[in-house]
Predict the 3D structure of the following.
Amino acid sequence: MPASSPATGLFRPSGRRWPGCAGLVVLVVSLPFAGLASEALKGSPGLWAHLISSILPVALVDTVILLTGVGLLTATLGTAAAWLVTAYAFPGRRILEWALLLPLAVPTYIIAYAYLDILHPIGPVQGAVRWLLGYESPRQFRLPDIRSMAGCILLLGFVLYPYVYTPTRAMFLTQPGNLIDAARTLGMSRHAAFRRVALPMARPAVAVGVALALMETLNDVGAAEFLGVRTMTVSIYTTWVTRSDLPGASQIALMLLLIVVGLVAFERWARRKQGYAGDTRRSRGMTPVPTGRLKGLLLLSAGLVPVLLGFVAPATYLVTEAWKRYQFAALSPRLLQEAVNTIVIAMLATAVTITLGLLIAYAARLRPATGWFLRLSTLGYAAPSTVVAIGVLIVLGNADRFIDGAALQWLGISTGLVFLGSGAAVVYALTVRFLAISAGGIEAGLSRIPLSLDHAARTLGQSPSGTFRHIHLPLSKTAIAAAALLVFVDCVKELPATLLLRPLNIETFATHLYGEAARGTYEEASIAALAIVAISVLPVIFLSRVGIAGPASSVLARDNDHGEGVRI
């Protein structure tokens, strides 16, 4: 019989194995960061002095400038786009609502790869500008080089703004419309009501979106390197791979991790005394204001600008170049093998990640006191992939050495690199990185199942595991499938962890694209880039249909019972 409280009659579920397994999962997720700290301590004083004098100043300044620029641009574009499609009714608004999500399908390194060729001095854009102005040579006229800090900020901003757009639009849609009406009655213009009423109430959603965009910026290696910006993440990669200096890379990675923690802590401190409340059950939502034909066309045109720059232009370029490549040499057998590698790695990582996410989410439902396991599972998502990859390399490298030494001592054979040589390291890194998406999405699905079903199942003699199999698993299959889709696509797009931990002679679409772009042979990588974008469109279609706020936002953005708003 289930235990209950005589005083309150509340059902208290038992089941100690689930929280124990969830704690073990959190331990496994935390191991790379412990390994990172231990490796960073091995650095000599001379090494640290070299990092301070020649690497960290430039990398730190470039990282701060890039984060500031991308944060401001994504906040501006995302908030403006969300208000545009929420506050005004104009022809094409319904199409624009989901079209504004399309840049999510273009990974940052692909947009850099595409625009490097589109905006090349002898590329189509600059050629057309010179033709209009009557110039014949790039020596006579050329646009500013896209390989710059400003170019990197613009490109990343136009790809990452949907992280702000989706939660902010959801917040605008749920705001009571009578507040805007009251502001208008008191003499405010609609723009003033936006600045003084709607925007302050949407600030938590904007903060969550900007935080996600900044995490993706810190995670980027390809775009920053292609565009000549030496960020902390690029410095980690070059210090490790080019200089073979793992302790130095670990020290930079640890500093970058502290920057991430500092950003999140500062945002929470900045709004520590702010609260947001509203009773959406007794108020209607915001009603879009109809516009005239001319104004509607202007608003539609303004809303399409980020879609054109963030998705249509690079996607058109990729389709054109892929078709040229196909006509010239058809499909390479190498691409077919890379497709198999990409899908196998992504499917394995997705299966492991979803399984562990189920453990953590259901353990938090059984025993709410263990809900902090869910918070700890987001650590990998907050850390850039390069940082996670170094930690995984340290942990699994030590494990490989131990297994090899034990096999030599007891069996007289060498096992070699069991983990690092088999692809297990890549799967481990992807699991640590995207466990937050899995656990958060599944936890959100489980939260919609009434506790009364748990009570009834336990009263009928079901164990916690039986209740999970017969009740929660069938009812939350949509949430599980959605989380699996998001994790799979993120694994396909992932570049830094795959690039650094893949076994020798194993290429995926992402690593193939990186290698070709680094050599300047853009046409060779166009088909792989187009395949990644085509796969990445799947979660965008899903987001447009269900209207959720974005990857991992169910963990990073959460409302409490007092209407305090979104917390990171």
Remarks:
- The chain is about 75% helix and 0% strand.
- Residues 69 and 490 are 24 Å apart (CA to CA).
- The chain has a mean pLDDT of 79.
